[in-house]
């Protein structure tokens, strides 16, 4: 597949000449070896981008009892991830320019490992929050730089590689939610061990990046980007001048809002309707598991289309149908609504794919990824809290579900705009 860009035929020819690979056998073997390491690193890193969150959700009651945590602090803990993603994610492009994206992701995996290993054993709420923030900081910078690494190492396979790490991310999310409690029981019922065990996978994700930490993005792999002057290559974009960047940021924020609301409240909606607690948990797992196969398929389809807007509309329609079902017949059609909302939540890998397609250069992808994700996660913070307030004040799920459906409409609109075939470099230069 070919990632669409705004390059002219002259630029393509110049880029091809500039990026002609070294034909010496040693260089070819080194490049192939490094590429395999990057693929392994991407998959292992993606597996670690959510277990710090979903493993805690599975044991939140035990953690609260063990640390004497108040309900208010527990509520704050559930709002920390998007806040950390927004605050720390914006630093990723600057760190990548200075140290190289591989080195920053390596450090991010090390931070996740340290945070997951430390937080269960600090013995107090403040230390638990600080260690959680350390792990989330590593997740934030890695979130932003995954599209950058894909764009740099696999410029002609953005869709398939984005699908691969999106699928691994969804698998890690589902795995941590499903097996944390059984693992805890198998280790004697200690919630500390049940949380700390996830540090093992995070430590494994550090290893593939170690041989690549010296890569600053200037050698290793031939670039498909047009040759420009040094000032143009390194000067930061005025990203806020791009309408596409803003549309993508709002789309990212609204899809994240829908995802956090679904993960946080969907089981309670089913339970209040009369669905048994165990079944409600399985329904949430079904919603999350839908992201595993679709996260691989959707990016591959998206890169073949000149406009990704139609995919946005299809996913949004599935979300509206799922919310309508939750309102009208939450018990009778529970499995169908869980499947539809799972499909709708696949707006996340689509957003990541569009980040890689809406910028022409590696630095442009870094800036766009940081802007879209940081701004988007800030937008997503109030949504789950507002749903909880509406539920408490109204005593039912009518108003919260109406809010979820209402938010899906602007998500479809801005996603359609973000899917147009243009780049942020073009728009920022006007």
N- to C-terminal distance: 29 Å
Structural class: mainly alpha
Instruction: Briefly note the CATH topology name of the largest domain.
Output: Growth Hormone, Chain: A
State the share of residues found in helices, binned by percent: over 70%
CATH superfamily of the largest domain, by name, is MFS general substrate transporter like domains
CATH class category label of the largest domain: Mainly Alpha
Shape, per Cα inertia axes: globular
Counting DSSP E segments of at least 2 residues, the number of strands comes to 0
Number of domains: 2
Tally of separate helices = 22
Strand content: under 5%
Low-confidence stretches: 1-25, 218-233
Q: Which second-level CATH architecture of the largest domain applies?
A: Up-down Bundle
Mean pLDDT: 82
Largest sheet: none
Q: Would you give an account of this structure?
A:
Helices cover 76% and strands 0% of the residues. It is mostly helical and 430 residues long. α3 packs parallel to α9, α16 packs antiparallel against α17 and α20 runs antiparallel to α21. The two termini are 29 Å apart. The N terminus is likely disordered.
